[in-house]
């Protein structure tokens, strides 16, 4: 049990530039972290920080140029597609956009049965499992014969979660799974994530731009800034008392839902920005 | 979002055929093609005479008697020959389409899905093929290999294959990076199965449509070649019959009529089928598109700003009387007791509806009343489908044309903009206000800037147009505005194209455009939702500064209570088209009365114990 479920060591990802022999753009500059069984690592960062790329690299959807990804004791850094098929049982994904992550032309039953089919699960067993999954994520059983567009955003995200759970995975990469949802729906989906973790002992790599969401769902947090992890530690520590200036800025920028507390926070942020500006002027560089 | 969630769930799928048949043109087209196919298949039964059976003694017979449609120059029965010829004509059209699909579809799939060198080579080949003049190629093939319908149609199929290639490639490229394809990859699905399961379905509809049209074209081209006498004289085709009829037009004019009718009707039928199929297969996403269109129109309204505006603006905002709709706790007088002119914007009992498929009206906004004073920030909070954006667009007068203002009134600075009789916004009244007195800040800054023009052009042009000031003066003001919204190097941004600046910068530019006319009211629809939190904080600072410096009132539509707490003076909470609670920001956020407001605030994560449940309910 002391064995880490996922170990990422010095991971670098670079996408080739468009055009012939144009070199590559490095998105991640060597990030390292690990995830324990049944725990959640929250990755927080703003657009362009490379947080989505981390998830995609682990899933084999982004070109890894350096470093290693070890999952359950096996090096999967450059696992071939055939190997991925067997890996799929243990490593799954829930994407951000519940509108494009489900094939609009397929019925919910087909969508949920697809991963089972690949693992050669028989039709009877598969049907039973699909019903079980729908129940697990709180959707009606008659959803099987309906199409994604008949469901709301929150319900679609439940379907995506059910698909990820189909093969009883050990780790689910969650890429901004609640950021497209309404506030009340977001709360219910976060509850579902927590409930599933308690019941099934699954680990999450939870990616989000929202520090509040990350604080709520994670045991540990990694703060990503321009392709580097700038701060990493226990969730409560990082989100309440950040050490790195960028994390501090992030925390001060997220508004509080109370006018007076928010104006205090705003004043703090203004002071910090002023300090930084003065430091810039003094130091001449950043 | 909003108004578009009411898509009928029952009339969908499997109804493509039904929708197709309900289209009279499609039904007629299909009937004609079916008749021709039936005639071709049953030719051996239906045709009274053989293909070559010639009644030498009876050439150019008139219709009637033994020969239903008369005979040709050799005394062959026209009706029989029409039937026999339809076999060859249809078969050649099918051959042409099959060849084109067999080459175009797989190559398009591979090129679109994998890209890379194959894509380069195949796209180049497709372009080369497309640049060849078809008729000349067909003529040279004919002279090289002799007259054969089959060879001609195979070559023509090859010439048409780039059409399929491009169609397929584009369709595949558009879904290749969809998340559901990624999800299938993560599941370990092989490329072949991803293509057959997730990709083919996207290509199917356009291919079917294209094929109907291609079949018509193939028949037309083939008949044309036969008509020119380039076919095989021993094979009966409509084109050859047409040619024969043409040569004997003075002796027996009707000989020309029958094959011409057959060709015209069949080709026309295929085109009708193609169009009807397109309508049936592709009319689904229309509902979603409407909102985007609205936003685009709105943006153009924004850029049509002028700097004239009103000069005297009450800088010190009066605290507006609190109006509680569902809670009667407030002792202050309600809206009804105030003369309408006291507020900058007054919306009363607004009801917006959209025609529903069943002929009724779906109301998306019901009985909404609120008001805004100068220099005040009112935030409308709600979840998707609450009608908050619809309300904002109604004030701007930018609702889709199908929207109906069923009831209520909107008064902007004493100008009533709702025409109650016509159930719509009076554009005549709103248009002069829009851009000058009211301006708009959209959610997606990038999609509201035209990528073809520089930022400077888009800022300065409206000023030149509306104020009649010189270009250099407009430029000076635009740069001043850019500086005012906190852009470090205004000259450079002025010269940049939208794709050269970041999202946060683009939002600043749009805010610059919105305040360029020193408006009385800014309507901001989720202005920070698409931005990072650090940028959001800066944009909110900017809006606050604009309010303080210019005394402009802001109607802010948002779903984020943090944003509300940061900038709003008053809050209106909307749920399913109704305004459930309204009041000063502190009152609503600290002591919400309405259960829905409590639910919303209870869903906030701030201050909650991490890793604990947020809601009462369980999922099972």
UniProtKB/TrEMBL annotation, chain A:
Domain of life from the UniProt record: Bacteria
Region annotated Disordered, chain positions: 253-286
UniProt domain ABC transporter: residue ranges: 6-251
SUPFAM superfamilies listed in its UniProt record: P-loop containing nucleoside triphosphate hydrolases (SSF52540)
GO biological process, one term: transmembrane transport
Gene3D superfamilies to which the protein is assigned, alphabetical: P-loop containing nucleotide triphosphate hydrolases (3.40.50.300)
Ranges annotated as biased composition (Basic and acidic residues): 258-286
Keywords: ATP-binding, Nucleotide-binding, Transport
Pfam families: ABC_tran (PF00005)
Alphabetized GO MF terms: ATP binding; ATP hydrolysis activity
The family this protein is said to belong to: Belongs to the ABC transporter superfamily.
Full protein name: ABC transporter ATP-binding protein
UniProtKB/TrEMBL annotation, chain B:
Topology relative to the membrane: Multi-pass membrane protein; Peripheral membrane protein
Pfam family, one: oligo_HPY
Bilayer-spanning residue ranges: 25-47, 88-114, 134-160, 207-230, 250-273, 293-315
Signal peptide per UniProt: none
Gene3D superfamilies (alphabetical): MetI-like, P-loop containing nucleotide triphosphate hydrolases
Residues annotated as domain ABC transmembrane type-1: 86-278
Entries under SMART domains matching the protein: AAA
Family annotation (PROSITE patterns): ABC_TM1, ABC_TRANSPORTER_1, ABC_TRANSPORTER_2
GO CC term (a single one): plasma membrane
Database matches in SUPFAM superfamilies: MetI-like, P-loop containing nucleoside triphosphate hydrolases
Subcellular location: Cell membrane; Membrane
Family to which this protein belongs: Belongs to the binding-protein-dependent transport system permease family. Belongs to the ABC transporter superfamily.
Name of the protein in its database record: Dipeptide/oligopeptide/nickel ABC transporter permease/ATP-binding protein
């Amino acid at each position: 049990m002391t064995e880490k479920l996922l170990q990422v060591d010095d991971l670098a990802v670079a996408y080739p530039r468009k055009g012939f022999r144009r070199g590559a753009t490095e998105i991640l500059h060597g990030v390292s972290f690990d995830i324990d069984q049944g725990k959640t690592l929250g990755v927080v960062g703003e657009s362009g920080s490379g947080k989505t790329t981390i998830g995609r690299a682990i899933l084999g959807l982004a070109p890894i140029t350096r470093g290693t990804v070890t999952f359950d004791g096996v090096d999967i850094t450059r696992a071939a597609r055939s190997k991925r098929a067997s890996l799929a049982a243990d490593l799954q994904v829930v994407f951000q956009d519940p509108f494009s992550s489900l094939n609009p032309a397929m019925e919910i039953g087909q969508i949920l049965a697809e991963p089972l089919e690949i693992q050669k699960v028989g039709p009877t067993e598969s049907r039973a499992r699909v019903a079980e999954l729908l129940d697990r994520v709180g959707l009606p059983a008659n959803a099987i014969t309906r199409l994604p567009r008949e469901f709301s955003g929150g319900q679609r995200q439940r379907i995506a979660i059910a698909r990820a759970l189909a093969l009883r995975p050990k780790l689910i990469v969650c890429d901004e799974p609640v950021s497209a949802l309404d506030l009340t729906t977001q709360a219910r989906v976060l509850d579902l994530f927590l409930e599933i973790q308690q019941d099934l002992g699954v680990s999450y790599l939870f990616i989000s731009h929202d520090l509040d969401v990350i604080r709520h769902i994670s045991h540990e947090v990694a703060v990503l800034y321009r392709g580097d992890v700038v701060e990493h530690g226990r969730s409560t520590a990082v989100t309440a008392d950040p050490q790195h200036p960028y994390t501090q800025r992030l925390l001060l920028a997220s508004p509080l839902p109370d006018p007076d507390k928010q104006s205090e926070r705003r004043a703090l942020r203004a002071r910090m920005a002023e300090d930084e500006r003065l430091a810039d002027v003094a130091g001449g560089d950043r | 979002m909003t108004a578009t969630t009411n898509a009928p769930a029952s009339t969908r799928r499997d109804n493509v055929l039904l929708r197709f048949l309900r289209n009279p043109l499609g039904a007629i087209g299909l009937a004609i093609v079916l008749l021709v196919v039936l005639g071709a298949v049953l030719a051996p039964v239906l045709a009274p005479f053989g293909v070559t059976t010639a009644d030498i003694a009876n050439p150019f017979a008139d219709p009637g008697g033994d020969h239903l449609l008369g005979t040709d120059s050799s005394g062959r029965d026209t009706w029989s020959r029409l039937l026999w010829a339809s076999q060859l004509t249809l078969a050649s059209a099918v051959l042409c389409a099959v060849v084109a699909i067999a080459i175009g579809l797989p190559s398009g799939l591979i090129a679109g899905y994998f890209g890379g060198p194959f894509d380069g080579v195949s796209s180049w080949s497709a372009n080369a093929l497309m640049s060849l003049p078809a008729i000349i190629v067909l003529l040279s093939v004919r002279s090289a290999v002799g007259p054969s319908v089959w060879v001609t149609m195979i070559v023509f199929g090859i010439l048409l294959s780039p059409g399929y290639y491009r169609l397929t490639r584009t369709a595949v490229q558009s879904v290749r990076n969809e998340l559901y394809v990624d999800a299938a990859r993560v599941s370990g699905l092989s490329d072949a199965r991803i293509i057959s399961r997730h990709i083919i379905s996207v290509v199917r509809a356009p291919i079917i449509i294209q094929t109907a049209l291609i079949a018509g074209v193939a028949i037309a081209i083939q008949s044309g070649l036969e008509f020119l006498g380039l076919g095989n004289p021993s094979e009966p085709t409509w084109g050859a019959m047409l040619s024969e009829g043409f040569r004997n037009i003075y002796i027996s004019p009707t000989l020309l009529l029958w094959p011409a009718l057959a060709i015209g009707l069949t080709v026309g039928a295929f085109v009708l089928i193609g169009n009807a199929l397109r309508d049936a297969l592709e009319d689904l996403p229309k509902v979603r598109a409407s909102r985007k269109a609205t936003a685009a129109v709105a943006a153009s309204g924004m850029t049509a700003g002028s700097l004239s505006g009103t000069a005297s603006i009450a800088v010190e905002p009066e605290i507006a009387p609190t109006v509680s709709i569902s809670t009667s706790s407030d002792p202050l007088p309600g809206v009804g007791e105030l003369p309408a002119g006291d507020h900058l914007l007054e919306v009363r009992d607004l009801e917006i509806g959209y025609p529903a498929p069943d002929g009724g009206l779906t109301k998306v906004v019901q009985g909404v009343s609120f008001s805004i004073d100068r220099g005040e920030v009112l935030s409308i909070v709600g979840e998707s489908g609450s009608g908050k954006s619809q309300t904002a667009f109604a004030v701007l007068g930018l609702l889709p044309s199908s929207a109906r203002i069923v009831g209520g009134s909107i008064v902007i600075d004493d100008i009533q903009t709702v025409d109650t009789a016509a159930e719509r916004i009076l554009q005549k009244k709103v248009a002069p206000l829009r851009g000058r007195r009211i301006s708009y800040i959209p959610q997606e800054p990038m999609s509201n800037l035209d990528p073809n023009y520089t930022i400077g052009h888009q800022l300065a042009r409206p000023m030149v147009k509306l104020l009649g000031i010189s270009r250099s003066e407009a430029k000076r003001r635009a740069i001043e505005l850019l500086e005012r919204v906190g852009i470090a190097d205004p000259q450079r941004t002025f010269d940049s194209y939208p794709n050269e600046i970041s999202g946060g910068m683009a939002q600043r530019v749009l805010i610059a455009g919105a305040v360029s006319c020193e408006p009385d009211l800014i309507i901001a629809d989720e202005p920070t939702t698409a931005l990072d939190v650090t940028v959001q904080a800066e944009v909110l600072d900017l809006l606050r500064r604009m309010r303080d410096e210019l005394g402009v009132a802001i109607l802010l539509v948002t779903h984020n209570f943090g944003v509300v707490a940061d900038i709003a003076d008053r809050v209106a909470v909307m749920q399913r088209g109704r305004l459930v609670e309204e009041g000063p920001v502190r009152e609503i956020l600290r002591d919400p009365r309405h259960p829905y407001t409590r639910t919303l605030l209870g869903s906030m994560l701030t201050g909650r114990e991490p890793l604990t449940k947020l809601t009462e309910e369980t999922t099972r």
